[in-house]
Amino acid sequence: MINWKVILNIAKTHLLTKMKSTVTAALGVTFGIGAYITMAGFMTGLNDLLDGLTLNRTPHIRLYNEIEPSEKQPVSLYAEFENAFNVVRSVKPKQSQKKIHNALPILNYLKANDAVKGVTPQLLAQIFYISGSIELGGTLVGVDITEEARLSNINDYIVEGTPEALRNNANGILLGAGLAEKMSLSVDDRVQVSTVAGTIFPLKIVGIYQSGLAEIDNVQSYVNLKTAQRILGEPENYITDINIKLFNIDQAPAMAIGLQRQFDVKAIDINKANAQFETGSYIRNLITYAVSITLLIVAGFGIYNILNMLIYEKMKDIAILKATGFSGRDVQLIFMSQAMIIGLMGGLLGLLMGFGLSVMIDNAPFETEALPTIKTYPINYNPMYYAIGIVFALISTFIAGYLPANKAKKIDPVKIIRGT
Amino acid sequence: MKLVLETKNINKHFYKPKDFHVLKDISFGIKEGEFASIMGKSGCGKSTLLYILSTMDTDYTGDLYLNDQLITGKPHEELSRIRNKNIGFVFQFHYLLTEFSVLENVMLPAKKLAEKSQAEIEHDAHEKLKMLHIEHLTEQRASRISGGEKQRVAIARALINNPTILMGDEPTGNLDSQNSENVFNIFKRLTEEQRLSLLVVTHDEDFAKRTDRIIEMEDGRIVN
């Protein structure tokens, strides 16, 4: 029979009379957990930011026509050479069109699919921006801007102007920020673009687009899909890319394979397109956990040390308790509960500290050219980290307390009382 | 008369640093209401015997009976409970929990036993303190009172669960003669008024002579 009231009362008295040690031990846990929460929140916040930078702009599946050589060369179709070893030299890519065949029916088919959140058609065209006698090479993307704004966070990257302004102006263009700077242009100015074939077309700048990635901002601009088709002199079904957003990103690889077979186009899924980001996030998470666990282990040693010292100081008390009828188990529980109280108090304070630091970081100004929409440092407030934090605090204090408490359990009162 | 405590052929060895036969065939009994003292030179094994009798030391051969019940061989948990309920212990150096108040020190064994309510335990503790004329110290910290007072608090604590037997390991060894006299008178009164059995290890010959019975030990044997 365990008399918790008595045990907790003794534990409480020990902790209160040794306030300094108690506070030191608890602060060890507090800093460990606080640092873990802050680190985890900051690191994963940064991860999300960096992933978002690329991933949110990347469609889950992209359909397009790849320029590539035919897999089956004509010679292999010829029956007489069936069993021969054929060598074809200087293989050239197959003559094929850039546009997706039957793009509009494919769009309608995908829109009807339940797993698909949205589909946007795009027209990618190589063009030149003309500034006086200078020609700057670049790409023009014809988009359905309303759908793009709904499905991707393109809105965040339009630093001047609005998506509506583009939609309402048939000759409007969202100019890349790097291009605007190079050509000294701003909103409401005009810019001339020239197709590869040489047709010159004037456009009105309705907004500036800044993705934060210089290689994009220096070459890419957005226009309405119809405008792009008109500039190229192509009909309304001329679409070079179909971007698909799914409700569940995990379905992307399987679906990409299916679409590639079904429509005879190249389909690339987000995982293939951005494999390196997965690796980056994974390694950053690994570092976060390694540092946090180190901090918590250090805190655990602190508790172990202080409890050990406490038990040496309390040798006589332990002997008296045992002599007056407290069992080894009671004594063990007294010291275990001290460890757990330290862990719980320190842990809860640590959560508060972690949250406080997170809020501070969240409000610290962080302005950079590369990330126009970011004004403060990114923080992830995932409650999961708080749960892990408190559980870890309790587990580490349990282990740190168990060893000294077990020693206290085994102390032989006779030896202490006789002073040997 | 009924035997409260009885030993049969108790033997004990110390194995470190080398084999040493401390207790040799100890057989004796304490009657109800008897005030016995154990005397002998240092190292004759009297303290060792007392710790075996108190159930704290279990490393021996032979049989130990408390209230006609065999104690030897019982698990530690049960021994703790027996110690809690039936045996009161007074040490040479008072041994109070210094961080607790006098009242809490006295109440602790009863709280552990948990047979009575908090109010009853508190009432009992006040009774015991009153009986030992130290009720004015009730709320003091145990570290703030004098040596003689501490020893009386320790006796009150030993008595709180109304044990069958009270054991003392030189309870007056660290006290001046006036306080020793006090403690002796308390012990005497307990045996006479409450029929409590007492077994006290002592060096003090005057103290021993005034007890009902002297058990003399020499080289691990009872000689008288």
UniProtKB/TrEMBL annotation, chain A:
Residue ranges constituting the ABC3 transporter permease C-terminal domain according to the UniProt record: 290-413
Gene Ontology, cellular component aspect: plasma membrane protein complex
Keyword Lipoprotein assigned: yes
Domain MacB-like periplasmic core span(s) in chain numbering: 22-246
Keyword annotations: Cell membrane, Lipoprotein, Membrane, Transmembrane, Transmembrane helix
GO BP term (any one): lipoprotein localization to outer membrane
Name this protein carries in UniProt: Lipoprotein-releasing system permease protein
From TrEMBL, chain B:
Residues of the ABC transporter domain: 5-223
Residue stretches in coiled coil: none
GO cellular component terms listed in the entry, alphabetical order: membrane protein complex
SMART domains per the UniProt record, alphabetical: AAA (SM00382)
Molecular-function GO terms, alphabetical: ATP binding; ATP hydrolysis activity; transmembrane transporter activity
Key words, A-Z: ATP-binding, Lipoprotein, Nucleotide-binding, Translocase, Transport
SUPFAM superfamilies linked: P-loop containing nucleoside triphosphate hydrolases
Family according to the record: Belongs to the ABC transporter superfamily. Macrolide exporter (TC 3.A.1.122) family.
Matching PANTHER family: ALPHA-D-RIBOSE 1-METHYLPHOSPHONATE 5-TRIPHOSPHATE SYNTHASE SUBUNIT PHNL, LIPOPROTEIN-RELEASING SYSTEM ATP-BINDING PROTEIN LOLD
Protein name: Lipoprotein-releasing system ATP-binding protein
